[in-house]
Design a protein that fits this description.
The protein has 215 residues and is mainly β. It has two helices and nine strands. The chain has helices at residues 2-26, 145-148; strands at residues 33-50, 55-56, 58-72, 75-90, 95-113, 116-137, 155-169, 172-183, 198-213. The chain has an eight-stranded antiparallel beta barrel. Strand 5 (95-113) and strand 6 (116-137) form a beta hairpin. It is elongated, with a radius of gyration of 19 Å.
Length: 215
């Protein structure tokens, strides 16, 4: 399953690069724009476990630095470096684990409008687990796999898709974005002898951003 997910992500990246190359060939007169700024806000996450683990969303937060380069009318590239908290909360908060990541998305940025803009971002993301914290465990004697095992795969990769709006005020952008993220990597090993077939992180966020045009 991981291999199929990798093929899908590779296909999306290839299509995006072809689209960017085509756009670049069509219009070489656009005055490029470069922005740098900060974003932050709340997020909600859970883990797609198979066999299933009954969960509620774990609410936390994220924030980071954004660099955006617009090289064509309505089209550009965006890179970020974010500190983000994810994890899962089992039913009635019987067990809660928070995972703190450094995450780097590489996104295609498409927008519509001038002073007021609607936009979407799409592209791959990679991340690395900094540390894990058990927030709550009402049954310390539990032998459930996800309770006793530390996270086995610290490297994370997947796909991000965001939708939002922004307002340009002179050389500044104020934006609001909602984003969904799916990790193609598993938290726990999924060999035949392992308990979990899947343990993929899924999370969504709402962030407020402030960017300054530097070029």
């Amino acid at each position: 399953m991981q291999q199929r997910a990798q093929y899908k992500i590779t296909g999306v990246i290839s299509i995006l690069f072809i689209f960017l190359s085509f756009a670049d060939a069509q219009n070489n007169k656009f005055q490029s724009e470069t922005y740098i700024g900060i974003t932050g806000g709340p997020n909600a996450s859970m883990v797609y476990f198979r066999p299933q683990v009954v969960q509620d969303f774990l609410f936390a937060y994220q924030g980071g630095l954004t660099v955006r380069y617009i090289n064509e009318k309505s089209l550009g590239l965006q890179a970020e470096i974010n500190y983000t908290q994810r994890g899962w909360s089992e039913k009635d908060k019987s067990f809660v684990k928070r995972l703190d990541y450094i995450e780097v998305p590489f996104l295609t940025h498409v927008y519509f409008g001038d002073k007021a803009r609607f936009f979407f971002n799409i592209g791959p993301k990679i991340g690395y687990l900094l540390h894990e914290t058990v927030i709550q465990n009402v049954n310390p004697a539990s032998t459930n796999e996800q309770h006793v095992q530390p996270i086995q795969n610290k490297f994370d990769y997947g796909l991000a898709l965001g939708l939002g709006c922004m307002f340009k005020i002179k050389k500044q952008l104020i934006q609001l974005e909602g984003r969904g993220n799916f990790s193609a990597s598993d938290l726990f090993s999924n060999d035949r002898r392992d308990y979990f077939d899947n343990s993929n992180l899924i999370h969504g966020s709402v962030t407020l951003g402030w960017l300054i045009q530097v070029k």
